[in-house]
Amino acid sequence: MAVIECVPNVSEGRRQDVIDKLADDLRAIPGMRVLDVQSDAAHNRSVFTLAGDAAALTAGIPTLFEGAIAAIDLTGHQGEHPRLGAVDVTPFIPIEGATMAECVTLAKSIAATVSERFSLPVYLYEEASSNPARKNLEDIRRGEFEGLAAKMAQPGWAPDFGPATPHPTAGASVIGARMALIAYNINLNTNRLAVAKKVAAAIRMSSGGLRYVKAMGIPLEDRGLVQVSINLTNYEKTPIFRVFDLVKREAARYGVSVVESEIVGLVPAAALRQSVEYYLQLEGFSGDQVLENKLRSDDRR
Amino acid sequence: MAVIECVPNVSEGRRQDVIDKLADDLRAIPGMRVLDVQSDAAHNRSVFTLAGDAAALTAGIPTLFEGAIAAIDLTGHQGEHPRLGAVDVTPFIPIEGATMAECVTLAKSIAATVSERFSLPVYLYEEASSNPARKNLEDIRRGEFEGLAAKMAQPGWAPDFGPATPHPTAGASVIGARMALIAYNINLNTNRLAVAKKVAAAIRMSSGGLRYVKAMGIPLEDRGLVQVSINLTNYEKTPIFRVFDLVKREAARYGVSVVESEIVGLVPAAALRQSVEYYLQLEGFSGDQVLENKLRSDDRR
Lengths: 301, 301
Hints:
Distance between the termini of chain A: 25 Å
Oligomer: homodimer
Strand content of chain A: 15-25%
Structural class of chain A: alpha+beta
Number of strands of chain A: 11
Order of helices and strands of chain A: EEHEEHEHEHHEEHEEHEHH
């Protein structure tokens, strides 16, 4: 049976009742698995990690859009994380028994559905986009909700689906397909935002850093700290530990240490094994040596 | 269904046909799961990681003894790892749905069976032993096969089961029950055995080191390296990363670096997570965030 992961990011991270209702409505969809819900009050954003086959997602994702659009009004929305829409971005990710092509098809079909039902402009991104200027989420999102009307008026920024002007409260939405990524935050022991921004610039590909890294520096006001908020878009090629070690080194240049890090949502076991193997200098280690994997394997020989 | 792990260590690590036959005979036992087989030619020792319920182990373990005793003649046996018997040590470990008490009962019952069937002296150890002088494997094994006749003649060293003199080719066997341990080797970039022995002495509890660590230094002749061979007997209290970092530091005192490390056999996922959390300074991380765990969980909500 096909397993496709879908990770909608919605622009609500503070009202728990709203978040809970969105999650409960998703759980009610047959065949929809709600693997994880992560909310961040500083970002004012929640990330739902879902899994199902194409049929379950086709039924369930429009329901999420319905609830989010009804509950979230972006006029006056404040949060540390950039956002374009009430449902900001919805990627589909092939996990098992599904291909990237199938995920692209699914993304386009759901984009067509929600744009029509909710009069919502939708941009395709990553593998679902055939326009290099509109492939990267950051390029599409630049200007955010507040700059959307002006952006959509420019040549080259008409949406892939839906009306030519923003939804008044839900903005626009980005939908597409991509490989599994790891959402990873590293908190630094300073309140100087400039340090987090400099470290982010040092590690991300766009400004000269590691290839499969996106990063930005944001403040954590209530804690008096700053955060390097990171997306690892290909952990197999650019592993977690290399990014962590580089952040430590770059932060040390400013006399700043790492307080802690956090993985947001789900992470493939292989990515964790990579880091264990690196730090412990483990040779010849295999996932088959993990006791729980062995016990659950179907091979009873 | 109860899952009891059993990890027999046998004194054969070089003759692949012998090891394969022992493994195949185990696989043929209904309900016996052969999770892993690790052989080490330098140690001249193999470790079988098995899992099953009490019934499967009661049927299967005596079969292992039969095969090992027939194939392994300890007179003239050479290997870096200390050994008392053809089947050197057989611990039973409660994993799921089984208690330590049940594992102790199982150990004693199998000890009675094999001692009688094969005229083999058997010593109980760890949780199965009620004698503090004969609880620790190292205390029982001291003197090894070659010193066994003299040892068994002493007061206080009559075996718990079986004859009062060694089996002529199979020596004696140690059987018991304990918590899961991690077998972990760290290879050092030197051929000076004294360095490995000093590092081992520094890290192990018996000579002043970390509480839940047993360790010894051995040569890896064919590689021109030395090895600190470690058992972590309670990884929850004395974690892998702390032992690794201490070995690095203690070896550096001699100008020696760590070449690599290896985990022998199986390791609980939690022990790996501990190390990832330590090195990446991960906060709030849970095994539920591992994608494969989520996909396999029975909770489809």
